[in-house]
Amino acid sequence: MGEILEMVEGYENILVLGCGTCVTVCLSGGEREAAILAGQLRIWGKKEGKNLNVMEHTIQRQCEKEWVDEMRGHVEKADVVLSLACGVGVQLVAEMYEDKAVYPGLNTTFMGYPVEHGTWLENCRGCGNCVLAHTAGVCPITRCAKSLLNGPCGGSQNGKCEISKETECAWQLIYDRLKTKERLEWMNSYQPPRDWSTAGDGGPRKSVKIEEVVD
Amino acid sequence: MEAEEATSTQEVNEDFRPKIVAYCCNYCAYAAADLAGSMRLSYPPDIKVIRIPCSGKVEINYLLKAFEEGADGVMVAGCLEGDCHFMEGNYRAKRKVRHAKRLLDEIGFDSERLEMYNLSSAMAGRFAEIIEEMTEKIKKLGPTPLRKGVKD
Predict the structure, then answer these.
(1) Helix or strand or coil: residue A121?
(2) Which residues of chain A does B103 touch, with a Cβ-Cβ cutoff of 8 Å?
(3) Which residues in chain B touch residue A39, judged by CB atoms under 8 angstroms apart?
(4) CB distance B97 to B63 below 8 Å
(5) Which of B61, B74, B110 to mutate against chain A (most A CBs within 10 Å)?
(6) How far is B122 from chain A (nearest CA, A)?
(7) Percentage of residues in chain A with pLDDT exceeding 70?
(8) In this predicted model, what pLDDT tens digit does every residue of A59-76 receive, in sequence order?
(9) What CATH number has the domain bearing residue B82?
């Protein structure tokens, strides 16, 4: 919160912009979270004797130009936009409203599903070259601390990873699941060194679906 | 700490009538308030009761909104632990209140102004007592620093 207060320092008209898709279901940047952050800012402003006008608005998706364009009227009333979208949304809003100060209202952490209500686990790193077919649907790139491709390391103890007792060993999970599927022989298949250029190591990635591109 | 020191040295202004917003669960506190009325129990009149279907329905932004609009104190009253009509709503409310307190502390607003209570629908006496307690506490804390510019 201290970081956010620093970002909005000196601005009077603040727009807290929620995003209605991924960050909403992840309970981190949707309408409700926008209302909470806006509420905090209003209380802070009043307490500090600042004359703040904190607005809140949530759009369906901050990562698509059409949606971002539709809220032009809201953005124009603001001096600063605090975007509660993931980094993708923050960047598009910043790009489309170049004359406005656009700041991130949250840290985008990872892609994952909730293991229980309120708890998320990282599952996919978007590495661009999926290995799940060989690993019984458990991603060793993401869930193994070393991203090992050919079995566990010596730090695998009682199904847990040596980095933390709470972290499951991805290769233990893969082994157990292959056993269930009666595909244990897959453990012996050798995965050669990977080409990490698809994972972002080759620079920012771009994807074109030529059949979808409109001339 | 600062707030505590400030309040202990401050004289309590007897004329100050705190505005307290109470989010009351339909199955306990709201019914207890009703019973308190039927029993002709008296308690401070400075409370504004908002009926909610379960204390678990309370959202953090509702709590902040009440402060924003100039409430001196905000309370959530849910069923006794283990007795929620919806199994665990009051535990959820407890966590939300705890988190809301953290959010208030972050921006330097005295989170003592927010409190959670648990009671049953038969506890009319306790309801009156809670309102008494909350009112006394808020009186000691004094008016909200946000009241300036807010209409009564």
Answers:
(1) strand
(2) 1, 36, 40
(3) 60-61, 64-65, 67-68
(4) yes
(5) B61
(6) 33
(7) 100
(8) 999 999 999 999 999 999
(9) 3.40.50
Residue B31 DSSP symbol: H
> Does A1 touch chain B if contact means CB atoms closer than 8 Å?
yes
Strands (E), B18-139: 20-25, 47-52, 73-78, 114-118
Q: Classify residue B150: in a domain, yes or no.
A: no
For residue B122, give its domain range: 18-141
Q: Work out how many domains chain B is built from and give that number.
A: 1
Cβ-contact A82, A14 below 8 angstroms: yes
Interchain CB distance below 8 Å, B107 and A1 = yes
* d(CA A38, nearest CA chain B) in Å: 9
Query: What confidence score (pLDDT) does residue B2 get?
Result: 47
ipTM: 0.86
Q: Which of residues 44-83 of A touch B (CB under 8 A)?
A: 44, 46-47, 49
Size of interface A-B (CB pairs under 8 A): 50
Please check whether residue A1 is in contact with residue A9, taking contact to mean a CB–CB distance below 8 angstroms. no
Can you give the pLDDT of all 152 residues of chain B as single tens digits? Answer: 444 444 444 566 778 899 999 999 999 999 999 999 999 999 999 899 999 999 999 999 999 999 999 999 999 999 999 999 999 999 999 999 999 999 999 999 999 999 999 999 999 999 999 999 999 999 999 999 997 655 55
- Pairwise CB contact (< 8 Å): A49 & B109: no
Domains of chain A as residue ranges with CATH: 7-104 (3.40.50.2300), 117-199 (no CATH)
Cβ of residue A40 closer than 8 Å to a chain B Cβ = yes
Whats the size of chain B, residue-wise? 152
Strands (E), B31-129: 47-52, 73-78, 114-118
Token pair recorded at residue B81: 């632990």
pLDDT-derived band at A121, boundaries 50, 70, 90: very high
In a domain, B148, yes or no: no
Predicted local distance difference test score (pLDDT) of residue B147: 78
Say yes or no: B99 contacts chain A, CB-CB below 8 A.
no
**Centroid of chain to Cα A41:** 24
